[in-house]
């Protein structure tokens, strides 16, 4: 894969940042790795305490380093990156198709109504105000989603991200051509790689599994403490009958029996 030469993971790159350590030394801020023959600089994230993988960036909203970071989308309330970019792209493309569909058929409905009853266009619009409202909404919405779908089609065709395009990561600098190491140099190949590539598992599940294991251990500990407390209470309650023997299945205290037994008369 593209990141075949990048073998460092978060757990392997943890650095002890405690100032009290006598051997404290600041970690290097960058590290160079080879990706498809091109040198790529990795930046150290002091928040996550890892060297960010290629094309990754730290999102302050999600408080995590995102692989193949594209952007943080407030409309979906999540980052768009390596695992969900294809779904985001398909979403904006289908929304664009929906807006064009609604706009075209709303206009067609108004025109057919005006021709059917031989009315003017204004009278046909007054008969179907819902179609007019739908056409207006679709008309104003289609431009934004169409532009967004076109922009991301360009990014997918060149295998870039919004973050890389804005920063100009693969733009020509000082006359020097910078090659994108992730592109297949083929538009169809890039689309196939992005839209039909493998599904990746979440790296955050490792953290969730550790937290779940910790919560399970705490629940087991609480149950054990509860059972021990109940057993202690039972033993304390049974301590009052240590000198008693069962009488017809009912424990009887000897102190009560001494008060109930008849007294032997003393000789006069």
Short description:
The chain has 268 residues and is α+β, with helices and mostly antiparallel strands. Helices cover 47% and strands 13% of the residues.
Which labels suit this protein?
268 residues, alpha+beta, 7 helices, 47% helix, flat
Would you kindly provide a written description of the structure presented here, covering whatever features stand out?
This protein is of the alpha+beta class and 268 residues long. 47% of the residues lie in helices and 13% in strands. The chain has 7 helices and 9 strands, in the order βββββββααααααββα. The chain has helices spanning 85-116, 121-127, 129-158, 162-167, 187-195, 204-238, 254-260; strands at residues 30-35, 38-45, 50-51, 57-59, 64-66, 71-73, 78-80, 245-247, 250-252. It has a 3-stranded antiparallel β-sheet with strand order 1-2-3, with no helix packed on it. The protein has a two-stranded antiparallel sheet with strand order 4-5. Strands 6-7 form a two-stranded antiparallel ribbon. A hairpin with a 4-residue loop joins strand 2 and strand 3 (50-51). Helix 1 packs across helix 2 and helix 1 runs antiparallel to helix 3. The longest helix is centred in the last third of the chain and has 35 residues, at 204-238. The protein starts with 29 loop residues before the first strand and ends in an 8-residue tail after the last helix. The model is unreliable at 1-21, 241-245 and 254-261 (pLDDT under 50).
């Amino acid at each position: 894969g593209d990141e075949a030469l990048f073998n460092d993971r978060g757990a392997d790159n943890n650095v002890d940042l405690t100032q009290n350590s006598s051997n404290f030394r600041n970690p290097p801020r960058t590290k160079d790795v080879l990706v498809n023959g091109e040198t790529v600089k990795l930046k150290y994230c002091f928040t996550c305490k890892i060297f960010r993988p290629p094309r990754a960036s730290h999102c302050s909203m999600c408080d995590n380093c995102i692989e193949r970071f594209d952007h943080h989308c407030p409309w979906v309330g999540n980052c768009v990156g390596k695992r969900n970019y294809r779904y985001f792209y398909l979403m904006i493309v289908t929304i664009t198709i929906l807006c064009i569909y609604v706009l075209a058929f709303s206009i067609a409905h108004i025109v057919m109504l005006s021709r059917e009853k031989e009315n003017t266009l204004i009278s046909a619009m007054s008969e179907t105000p819902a179609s007019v409202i739908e056409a207006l909404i679709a008309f104003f919405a289609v431009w934004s989603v169409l532009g967004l779908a076109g922009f991301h089609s360009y990014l997918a065709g060149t295998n870039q991200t919004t973050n890389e395009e804005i920063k100009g990561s693969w733009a020509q600098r000082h006359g020097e051509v910078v090659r994108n190491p992730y592109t297949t140099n083929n538009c169809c190949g890039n689309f196939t790689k992005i839209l039909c590539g493998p599904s990746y598992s979440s790296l955050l599940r490792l953290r969730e599994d550790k937290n779940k294991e910790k919560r399970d251990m705490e629940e087991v500990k609480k149950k054990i403490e509860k059972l021990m407390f109940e057993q202690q209470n039972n033993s304390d309650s049974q301590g009052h009958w240590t000198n008693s023997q069962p009488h017809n299945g009912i424990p009887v205290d000897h102190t009560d029996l001494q008060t109930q037994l008849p007294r032997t008369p003393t000789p006069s």
